[in-house]
Amino acid sequence: MTDVDVESTETTAGMSRARLDRESIVRSALEFIDEQGAQGLTMRGIGERLGVEAMSLYRYVSGREDLLEAVVAHLLQGMERQLDEELTDSWQGYLQTLAHEVRRIAVEHPQAFPLVATRHPAAPWLRPPLRSLALVEHFLSTLSTRGFDDVRVVQTYRAFTSFLLGHLLLESVVRGADSSPVEEPLDEGGADLPGKDAGIDLSEMPTVQRMRRLLSEDRSEEEFEIALETLLDRLERSLSQ
């Protein structure tokens, strides 16, 4: 190998090391999912994409499960700060701009949206696609300051997430997404699987903490009947016009 080749190799390796961090790994994983879907995502594939050995990635992510969760968090990160402030003075405007922001993710990342919609959230009472604790805290506290009592806030959270999930998951599938669950590998390097809330720190989420019991109630049958009646009423009004 010539001196030029050595210098080139060292430069490439140095660039790989310089750019290798959790954020760059997550961005690379999202790019892979956008192009090929989540089913084929592997640590080795992401390592090749970044020009490093797969083992190097384990310094920053504990495995594929952790990486998929990080992609979901990346997509939802800071959404509450991206809402149109001119619309959020009213509760109607708040829900409008939030719904369109969530839809933007489904449209821009149709292959990744099923991860947001179907993977286990950090706690069983968090409902996809609004599954970020910071976003749920913002949602609950905002409606609380717009004239909603706690019961109606939680009812709205349930109805709103059901609406988003049904419409946007279907839209992402129409755009080519695979909605089947991503196969979980046997060994995830000790990554914690979500779905339990015992270890969640809610000290900075006072509204979520206050409504935690209401959020945990199972009202699925009641919600289904209400949604079905609403649909039938809307169809009846449409036919009578």
**Average pLDDT, to the nearest integer?**
85
Within the CATH hierarchy, at the fold level, what is the topology of the largest domain?
Tetracycline Repressor, domain 2
CATH architecture of the largest domain: Orthogonal Bundle
Shape: globular
- Cα gyration radius (Å): 21 Å
Helix and strand composition category? mainly alpha
**Can you count the helices?**
12
Description:
The chain is an all-alpha fold and 241 residues long. It folds into 2 domains: 61 residues, Homeodomain-like (Arc Repressor Mutant, subunit A, Orthogonal Bundle); 156 residues, Tetracycline Repressor, domain 2, CATH 1.10.357. The N terminus is likely disordered.
Present the secondary structure layout.
Elements: H1 3-19, H2 22-36, H3 43-50, H4 54-57, H5 64-76, H6 91-108, H7 113-118, H8 133-144, H9 150-174, H10 206-210, H11 212-216, H12 220-240
A few lines on this structure:
The chain has 241 residues and is mainly alpha-helical. It has helices at residues 3-19, 22-36, 43-50, 54-57, 64-76, 91-108, 113-118, 133-144, 150-174, 206-210, 212-216, 220-240.
Write out key terms for the chains shown.
single chain, 241 residues, mainly alpha, Arc Repressor Mutant, subunit A, Tetracycline Repressor, domain 2, 2 domains
